[in-house]
Write a structure and sequence with these properties.
It comes from Rhamnella rubrinervis. This protein is mainly β and about 220 residues long. The protein has two domains: about 1-30; about 35-220, Sandwich (Jelly Rolls), CATH 2.60.120.200. The protein has one helix spanning about 1-25; strands spanning about 35-40, 45-50, 60-65, 65-70, 85-90, 100-110, 115-125, 130-135, 140-145, 150, 155-165, 170-175, 180-185, 190-200, 205-220. Strands 1, 3, 4, 6, 11, 12, 13 and 15 form an eight-stranded antiparallel sheet that branches. A seven-stranded antiparallel sheet has the order 2-5-14-7-8-9-10, with no helix packed on it. Strand 8 and strand 9 form a beta hairpin. The longest helix is centred in the first third of the chain and has 26 residues, at about 1-25. Bound molecules: 2-acetamido-2-deoxy-beta-D-glucopyranose (NAG). 2-acetamido-2-deoxy-beta-D-glucopyranose binds near residues 137, 145, 202 and 203.
Amino acid sequence: MKASVDYNTIMWLLLVGFLLIHHDHLCSAADPTDGFTQVLLAQDNFKLQKPYNVPLQERYSYKDGARSFWVYDKDKPFKPDSTTRPRTEVRITGHDYSSGIWQFEGYAFVPKGTSGVTIVQIHGAAEGATSLQLRIYNGDMRYYKYNLVATNLYDKWFRVNIIHNVGKGKITVFIDGVKKFVVKDQGPGDLYFKCGVYAAPANSSNYMESRWKGIKLYKK
Ligand SMILES: *[C@@H]1O[C@H](CO)[C@@H](O)[C@H](O)[C@H]1NC(C)=O
């Protein structure tokens, strides 16, 4: 009797131990990057755009692996003949795509007060300029000025993963590894990812800033 109790106790402890050790593995959902291959980015794959009349270092810094982008509502566009809103952005270059399944990944930080601004986008579409804009309005992330994607993002780092399946015409957005938003794209075109700050058509704060680190590109 005593021996069988001890046996059960030992088996129970072994089971608890196994579950504790494998807890993370058993409970974690699939990662957005599962099944993707990283496309290595070099410095010249990061092309910067900023108001044409100010030096880069007055709108951008790159320290300890984090890129900071900022812009003012009344800043000039990125080139003199453009009628677009002001921006300080990095355009991923050298890997424009028009088919396949691509993924952007980065960790973003938006300081409180920054509002009315696109922080990451897919440029290009069959019609129109963009396939996706993720904007911050009052600390929340929206699809353009429409659907709510995520809330309460001010003053913290959050992980952004965007999967663009061109063949299926589908874009999926993950925040902190959680699928938050799925939308139809705008048809194939010369497609590429951008991040930073690009003032929205309206409702922009005077000062807009986002910081990015760990920017990665993947494909399947
Ligand atoms: C933009 O501002 C207008 C006018 O104040 C307001 O009605 C609208 O809800 C704002 N839009 C967003 C996305 O915050």
